[in-house]
């Protein structure tokens, strides 16, 4: 059993050889909640949620496949248990159904409700997050900042110890995403100005083309009218001579 505690970020694996203890998980599906009283005395009062697992050959469980055995499915990009190597690629792969059975070797669980007793290495420890928030709004939410506060002063830096013992340790900070600075505002204003300028230029070019087209059409109509007058005068002259 691979049990994770989302409250403190810890994780621990337990090897259980007695099949009677894990029989409570049989015929359950992924995302089902199962009490852990029968698993062992240390899990009394705990409630677990099934999140996945692997069978004895290493094939992962896939949500939505309602069979307690292994099947071959045609998978494409966006499906779990499949990584597309090329655009539009589809491949038939073997996956394990989402119903728990005795052929599983690893079952992944998440603690939903904590019991009375502490589990050493799982509930009595706290694993801090290695990285802090990177997006500007998430940093503001973490430190309860306002729009006027400078987010760059509140970035969580992490200390890096180089492999070479002669070098001093240093700190690294992430690049803040979606950070609005005077430079970004200036760049945005410039883009808007360029866009308006291009639209104005397009309107002027369209008006100039329409004016030129109207002038050409007027000249063409005048030529046709002149040609018609010449033909009519020539026909009248020929009739008068006869």
Secondary-structure topology with pairs:
Blueprint: E1 2-5, E2 10-13, H1 19-22, E3 33-35, E4 47-55, E5 70-76, E6 90-96, E7 104-113, H2 136-143, E8 158-160, E9 170-172, H3 182-241
Parallel strand pairs: 1-7
Antiparallel strand pairs: 1-2, 3-4, 4-7, 5-6, 8-9
Can you give a write-up of this model?
The protein has helices spanning 19-22, 136-143, 182-241, and strands at residues 2-5, 10-13, 33-35, 47-55, 70-76, 90-96, 104-113, 158-160, 170-172. The radius of gyration is 37 Å and the shape is elongated. It contains three helices and nine strands. Strand 1 (2-5) and strand 2 form a beta hairpin. The chain has 242 residues and is an alpha+beta fold. 30% of the residues lie in helices and 21% in strands. A five-stranded mixed beta sheet has the order 2-1-7-4-3, with no helix packed on it. It has a two-stranded antiparallel sheet with strand order 5-6. It has a two-stranded antiparallel ribbon with strand order 8-9.
Q: Separation of termini?
A: 118 Å
Large-scale geometry? elongated
Class computed from helices, strands and strand pairing:
alpha+beta
> Oligomerization state of this entry?
single chain
Tally of alpha and pi helices: 3
Unreliable spans are none
What's the average pLDDT? 92
Describe the biggest sheet?
Answer: 5 strands, mixed
Q: What's the arrangement of strands in the largest beta sheet?
A: 2-1-7-4-3
Give the helix proportion (percent range). Answer: 25-40%
């Amino acid at each position: 059993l691979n049990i994770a505690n989302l409250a403190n970020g810890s994780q621990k694996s337990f090897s259980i050889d007695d099949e009677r203890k894990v029989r409570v998980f049989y015929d359950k599906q992924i995302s089902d909640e199962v009490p852990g009283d029968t698993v062992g005395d240390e899990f009394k009062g705990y409630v677990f949620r099934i999140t996945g697992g692997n069978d004895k050959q290493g094939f992962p469980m896939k949500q939505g496949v309602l069979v307690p055995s292994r099947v071959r499915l045609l998978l494409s990009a966006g499906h779990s248990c499949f990584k597309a190597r090329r655009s539009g690629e589809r491949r038939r792969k073997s996956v394990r159904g989402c119903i728990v059975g005795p052929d599983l070797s690893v079952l992944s669980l998440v603690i939903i409700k904590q019991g009375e007793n502490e589990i050493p290495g799982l509930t009595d420890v706290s694993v801090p997050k290695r990285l802090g928030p990177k997006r500007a709004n998430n940093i503001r939410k973490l430190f309860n900042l306002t729009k006027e506060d400078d987010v760059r002063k509140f970035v969580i830096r992490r200390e890096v110890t180089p492999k070479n013992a002669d070098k001093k340790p240093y700190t690294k900070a992430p690049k803040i995403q979606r950070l609005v600075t005077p430079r970004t505002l200036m760049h945005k204003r410039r883009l808007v100005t360029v866009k308006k300028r291009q639209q104005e230029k397009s309107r002027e070019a369209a008006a100039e083309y329409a004016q030129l087209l109207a002038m050409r059409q007027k000249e063409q109509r005048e030529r046709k009218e002149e040609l018609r007058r010449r033909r009519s005068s020539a026909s009248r002259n020929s009739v008068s001579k006869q």
